[in-house]
Amino acid sequence: MDKSKQPFRKSKRSFRRRLPPIGSGDRIDYRNMSLISRFLSEQGKILSRRTNRLTLKQQRLITIAIKQARILSLLPFRNNEKQLERVESIPRTTGPRTKKK
């Protein structure tokens, strides 16, 4: 087949391949807090596989490690820093409540 008769193809773009976030020496474990904390959002949610650029197996292992760390109280289930600040700023009354007539 002649090159002139081939269907139109997109030109191949050169792109730099990103390095995986987990190196070959990193061990995915619930005790490795520096590794685990990279895969959590500010609210304490587990980030998606696409966001993390992980393989399916790595994402499963990270998810299991995060859940184990949460159960053992190494990580909070939710990060409630904003809620705590808001609750602390509200003044509390200590006296008994009276009904308004």
TrEMBL record:
The keyword rRNA-binding applies. Residues 1-19 have a biased composition (Basic residues). GO terms for biological process: translation. One of its GO terms (molecular function) is small ribosomal subunit rRNA binding. SUPFAM superfamilies: Ribosomal protein S18. Pfam families: Ribosomal_S18 (PF01084). GO terms for cellular component: chloroplast; mitochondrial small ribosomal subunit. It comes from the Eukaryota. Residues 1-24 are annotated as: Disordered. The keyword RNA-binding applies. It is found in: Plastid, Chloroplast. Keywords: Chloroplast, Plastid, Ribonucleoprotein, Ribosomal protein, RNA-binding, rRNA-binding. Part of the 30S ribosomal subunit. Belongs to the bacterial ribosomal protein bS18 family. HAMAP family: Ribosomal_bS18 (MF_00270). This is Small ribosomal subunit protein bS18c. It comes from Anathallis obovata. The lineage of its organism: Eukaryota, Viridiplantae, Streptophyta, Embryophyta, Tracheophyta. The gene is rps18.
